[in-house]
Design a protein that fits this description.
- Keywords: Membrane, Transmembrane, Transmembrane helix.
- By secondary structure, this protein is mainly α.
- It has two domains: 82 residues, Four Helix Bundle (Hemerythrin (Met), subunit A) (Up-down Bundle), CATH 1.20.120; 105 residues, no CATH class.
- The protein has eight helices and no strands.
- The longest helix is centred in the middle third of the chain and has 48 residues.
- The two termini are 18 Å apart.
């Protein structure tokens, strides 16, 4: 997008033709579409505020519940700065943008270090449980020995749906409550996958 395109988008919001939430969505979409292209400094500064506003809207769960005073002030500053700012040359190293990208990367990585490790630990625990109870079910249902059951159980545990079903049967066979086994072997994996996919569709892959 050109500086004029960014200015038109900001004008639509400040003039009341776009709600704050709609402006934030279109701004983020335009930002992603501009990946690899020079972006005015004013837009780079505004992006931080838009990103924070969108996160607040997501937390609130409904439109109109979050005040857009800060967003409006930032948009007004960005519009004023766009009028004064010279176009960014595509061959010029943009130090401000590089610094902002590095700061966002550090924040994202610090969050991933905690949340990512927790999710990884939960998945490892779930895999171990699934392998164990699939093996137990095979040993009990087919009358096989421990080693053949363990080998086949290890393979089947990682087969989607089949592994979950067999682990569920093995756990309930060992005395688990049905609802607990259903949560562990069906609901938890499904919720994690859907959550990750939903976030990927909303924010897209990391910008290079």
């Amino acid at each position: 997008m050109t500086a004029g395109d960014w200015r038109a988008l900001i004008d639509a919001y400040l003039d009341g033709r776009l709600s704050a939430e709609a402006f934030a969505r279109r701004f983020v979409e335009s930002w992603r579409a501009s990946s690899g292209q020079p972006v005015p400094h004013a837009i780079q500064d505004l992006y931080v505020t838009v990103e924070a506003f969108e996160a607040q809207v997501l937390d609130a769960g409904e439109e109109g519940a979050v005040s857009d005073d800060e967003l409006r002030n930032a948009a007004q500053r960005a519009r004023a700065n766009l009028n004064e700012e010279a176009p960014v040359s595509p061959h010029t190293f943009d130090r401000t943008r590089a610094r902002d990208d590095m700061r966002r990367f550090q924040v994202q990585m610090s969050g991933c270090a905690g949340v990512g490790c927790l999710i990884a630990a939960l998945w490892v625990a779930l895999c171990v449980l699934q392998i164990y109870y699939v093996s137990e079910w095979i040993q009990e249902a087919l009358g096989w020995g421990a080693w053949p059951s363990a080998v086949i159980g290890f393979v089947l545990a990682f087969v989607p749906i089949i592994g979950n079903v067999l682990a569920f049967l093995g756990a309930t066979q060992e005395g688990w409550e049905t609802w607990i086994a259903a949560i562990v072997f069906f609901a938890a994996p499904a919720a994690t996958i859907l959550s990750g996919w939903s976030r990927y569709r909303r924010y897209g892959p990391p910008r290079g």
